[in-house]
Fold each of these.
Amino acid sequence: MKKAIGIDIGGTKIAAGIVSETGELLHRAEVKSDPSDSEKMFARVIDAVEQVLKDSSLSITDMEGIGVGVPGKVDRERGIAVFQNNLPWPQFPVTARLREQFGLERITIDNDVYTAAFAEWKASEAKRDETFVYVTISTGISCAIIHKGSFFRGAGFAGELGLIPVLSKTAENKLERLEFASAGPAIEKLAQKELQQANLSTKNVFEQYQAGTQEYQTIIDDVTDNWAQGLYSISCLLDPHKVVFGGSVIANNPFLLDLLKEKLKAYQIPEQQHLLNHMSISTIKNNNGVIGAGLRVFE
């Protein structure tokens, strides 16, 4: 069985895993990021790889290669992390440094949402001639599009769903970018503002909503309506066959999918509503970035 290392790099943590060519996650390790300095951050990536190899009793020579998912803009051809909001890696030569460190020739790099999307596409068993969309709702909101087996990248920045403006009721009916209106941190700020409670977390908001606490109903109603507006843009522009949702906000609160479907249906015309039966939440959740990065080695 062929194996590769997949690395999912974030500003808070770095996950590394050993992934089979069929997408099975054989071993996984996680370390804290150190975004205080570019070299310290890279050292933590090395730590994650060495830890997963140690835990598995395997050697780097047993691996076909290394796949990496990095936030922000990536130059895949040159293997460079170009720009990130949460890492100290402007123009950082990820591929060259990993090749120098581990001696493996096969190193792939891509945006982290794209690597997660690749794992979700494989897991969904979408048909090769279909249009598949992966949407992540977490600290930020973004998506990746796979059309007939290949990523749709546009000029390099396709999929920035979080930048689409939505009409948010709790923002005084003003247009606001979806990510600023309804990503995880935005939900927390909205609840704190509306309920005048400084210590509310996003997790608290969803717990209180499920408990039936009345004042939280309006907040979740607005949040899911904002998501539906963004998703309706995708429905109109791409008319995808399948949409899979990931990211901690929605993956940890699967009841939100039914609310989102209800809101989306209100916007759609009948010819678009086929999508409602083909929307689902990730079954591989926080492992999708690692698995997808590892699987890219075998492409």
Note: The domain at 127-281 is CATH 3.30.420.40 (Nucleotidyltransferase; domain 5).
Amino acid sequence: MADVSIIPETLSQMLTLLSPSPPGWGGNLLRGLMHSLQIALGAFGMGLIIGTLGAYGKLYGSPLVRDLAGIYTTIVRAVPELVLILLLYYAGTDLINRILEMAGYQRIDISGLVAGIVVLGFVQGAYATEVLRGAIKAIPYGEIEAARAYGMSPILMMRRITLPSMLPYALPGLANLWLIATKDTALLAVVGFSELTLETRQAAGTTKAYFLFFMAAGVLYLLTTLFSNLIVGRIEKWARRGMPSVGEAG
């Protein structure tokens, strides 16, 4: 029979390894999670701004604007995200410093947090463009015609008609983009940013408890997803108030 006396000792070792204070690594994992959420929030917000501009550019912009928006979304969605991250993180920061040097300024050290937000936000913007463009096209055209008949300016029509009306159609896609943003932060480990995945890898490599730490990281990602789904569900319920549910639509 297996010696069950080792179970309490094993559990004690696991709790020690994951405790938030030395000699545990729990604090490192939580710090990495906070960094991941900071990047995800910043990138998602930046992606929404780019996506809104891109969607309006594709739908209502000049031919040049539509072509530029189309090239942007096509390239970003075609190239693997890891390649884009490496390209934008290294080549982008080097390009900025070269431009500063040509203008007579000194080179700057770009914060890893800022660089991570900008890189992932640039990627998120391409997908958000298509999500929001589809949501705008789903708005009944009669609402747009009525707004124009009342003489609303494009900005006022966007604020009062387009954005509120497209929200229920955009939320499922935007929710997926948020979850993608939280997981894409793990790709920043390849450039040495201390998010959850890198902290987990360092803890596992030091203690050799690979299963324990990667399971802990998986649980943290899962909890983030479950909490996000809860928040998104509440927002979707609020956005669809007064609208028939899917079951009633038939």
Note: Residues 27-239 form a domain with the MetI-like fold fold (CATH 1.10.3720.10).
Amino acid sequence: MRFLRYLIFAVIFSLSSLTSASAQDISLQQFSSGAPPEYGLTAKSAILIEASTGRVIFEKNADVHEYPASMTKMMTAVLSLEMTNPNDIVHISDEATNVDGSSLYLEKGDIMHMDELRQGMMLVSGNDAAVAIADAIGGTTSAFVDLMNKKAQSLGAVNTHFVNPNGLPDPNHYSTARDMAKIAAYAYENEDFRKIVSAKEKEIHWLTPDKKMVFENTNHLLWNYPYANGIKTGYTDDAGGCLAASATRNGVTLIAVVMHTEDGQNRFSEAQELLDYGFKNVRMQPGYKKTDLMQSIHVHNGKTAKINVVPQSDISYPLIDGESGTSYSIKVNLPQYLEAPVKTGDKVGSVDIFYNNNKVGEVPMTADRSSGTGFNLESLCYALYDSITSLFATA
């Protein structure tokens, strides 16, 4: 027993100098916020945010329920990206071909790859394609809608409720400008999503029948606004004109959402007006480089005993010109240790970004190397050390 006690204390003291993987708070310089001018928008609700942090630059009735129309398809697209493979085969059913409104001109018995169907849906806002995707993933449209609502809640879009995957009007199908911006910002983090929504036109291929059709994007800003790179249009008589528009200029990426404009053209001019305002008044201040926040973490039962984790990207903060009192801070969240196996690029934690103590963004922390399952004496010592420190922490 005396020998075991000496061994335990030796392990503790030999490892006590290791960097802790617990969360830390890092406060930044203080800045103050300036209020943007009012706009003569016909949109009943609107919002402008900086994409990487979600900071709100302008808003008008941003929490009022509105019909989102085909902006709904942002959620359909991002779920399909997360839950399917590009070459998955989709068989088109009667349910999809009988949907009203904008169409990819699908016919019963058509067969397509998922990536072609998804691209076609986002280009021409095909309601039929959205239903086909929903059925392929959920088995039924209603089951897929349940997934949509769960995802919306997880993203903080708490004033959103979907009843279909395409945005056709229904009293129980609603969202807000703020929630649409949250969904758009989340989707925009996905590189494949960005490629889809930035395409002006694309040739879409069918497997059965063997045919090709070229479709143009319904988002006119891609042609008329040099900084535009997405995202999704929407229009019905009940919803009016809707648009989630993204653009990048001088290292600043903004997302503008307008809902229920007076007509289908106003959505483009009003979104552009908001984006222009943002680019004139917002600048990004460098916060941290990825290497500044690199930390090491123990791996239990692994061939490699310790790996480094780093943010996926450098961290910057949007500042409105003239402000001198806004508080940004970050919190690095990591578990005490990892269990093997760990793969390079695995998300193992996050850097949470706060603005005035409210979380506005998150950058994943990822593993910089792999560690397969296996025996390693150093890993065993780390496991013993972590078990002992956990006991003391809970005592």
Note: The longest helix spans residues 377-394.
